[in-house]
Amino acid sequence: MTPQHMDPDWLVFHADPKAPDFQLPKGAVDAHCHVFGPTPEFPFATERKYTPCNASKEKLFELRDHLGFTRNVVVQATCHGKDNQAMVDACRASGGMARGIASVGKDITKEELSDMHDAGVRGVRFNFVKRLVDATPQSVFLEIAEKIQDFGWSTVVYFEAKDLEDLEPFLQELPGIIVIDHIGRPDIKNGIYHNDFKRFISLMENNSSIWSKVTCPERLTIAGPPYDDVLPFYQAIVDRFEERVLWGTDWPHPNMKSHMPDDGELVDYIPRIARTVQQQEKLLVTNPMRLYWPEL
Ligand code: 0GY
């Protein structure tokens, strides 16, 4: 196989993140993170749009312990396409402390879904971000969404704010719980009163199956750390929908161009977006446990 060299401008995850000052509640879940490879054991997909550094499950679990999380939700990254082996391997190795979100095609069989369920997979991701994936017809995603209902899985949907209007009919048709990545990627320079963000809030108001990850200030910010410019967006969502929000590190932070965040500083950002102990408990424990570990 051709060696899979990391992209020349790839930013590698922080080597030595600080120990957070904010003490996470007991049983906190990092509900959005990834593993990359490591290659050659888990090669990247030929159709990938980027080639990252390796980011192994061991490193992920080390970070989990360092930051004070108990559990992870490992989301299939697009660099692995529909080959879920690295993510599934991380779930299996976690001893029940990691759940997975897979990326699958419409030919996925019941047996394959069942095997992934046994490993800890509890959802599929539908990606509409053009720089990350070639487009998949919405009808295919709807077919997959029907198939996973037997397993009680939910969906994760990734899109950018400008695409929401076109995607609304699709989102209304999707069965089950839908988790939107990174508050639908608003354009921060427009502010929270722009129609795009109002549309996102209305979406959540009008559809109680829609949840949101209040994640990735490092991606959405224009000003950079400490990400003050993104705060009003997260606060608007957490204050309105505290029963339907999730938080995650997004480690190892694919495709960052401006800077690489310190994961400890990201944890210290949490009490600025979830400003009461009750909100923090729901965001970090109650909500992710209800969605991904309902049996506990
Ligand atoms: C994220 C964001 C990104 C990448 C991926 O699967 C992926 O490749 O999710 C991105 O580049 O915005 O959620 O990690």
In short:
By secondary structure, this protein is of the alpha/beta class. It has one domain: Alpha-Beta Barrel (TIM Barrel), CATH 3.20.20. 35% of the residues lie in helices and 12% in strands.
Walk me through the structure:
There is one protein chain. Helices cover 35% and strands 12% of the residues. It is α/β, with parallel strands linked by helices and 296 residues long. The protein has a single domain (29-292), classed as Alpha-Beta Barrel (TIM Barrel), CATH 3.20.20. It has an 8-stranded parallel sheet, sandwiched between helices. Helix 6 links the parallel strand 6 and strand 7 (210-213). The termini are far apart.
Give the helices and strands, then pairings:
Blueprint: E1 29-33, H1 57-67, E2 71-75, H2 85-93, E3 98-102, H3 110-119, E4 121-127, H4 138-148, E5 154-158, H5 164-173, E6 178-180, H6 195-206, E7 210-213, H7 217-220, H8 231-240, E8 245-246, H9 263-273, H10 277-292
Residues 77-79, 132, 181, 250, 254-255 line the site of (1E,3Z)-4-hydroxybuta-1,3-diene-1,2,4-tricarboxylic acid.
The biggest sheet, with number of strands, parallel, antiparallel or mixed sense and barrel status, is:
8 strands, parallel
Quickly count the helices.
Answer: 10
Note the gap between the termini: 43 Å
Bound molecules: (1E,3Z)-4-hydroxybuta-1,3-diene-1,2,4-tricarboxylic acid
Instruction: Enumerate the strands of the largest sheet in spatial order, edge to edge or round the barrel.
Output: 1-2-3-4-5-6-7-8
Helix-strand pattern: EHEHEHEHEHEHEHHEHH
- Tell me what the CATH architecture is: Alpha-Beta Barrel
Average pLDDT rating = 98
CATH class: Alpha Beta
Share in helix: 25-40%
What do we call the CATH topology? Answer: TIM Barrel
Total strands: the figure is 8
Label the structural class.
alpha/beta
CATH superfamily: Metal-dependent hydrolases
Instruction: Provide the gyration radius in Å.
Output: 18 Å
Weakly predicted, low-confidence segments: none
Shape: globular
- Residues in β-strands, percent: 5-15%
Q: How many separate domains? A: 1
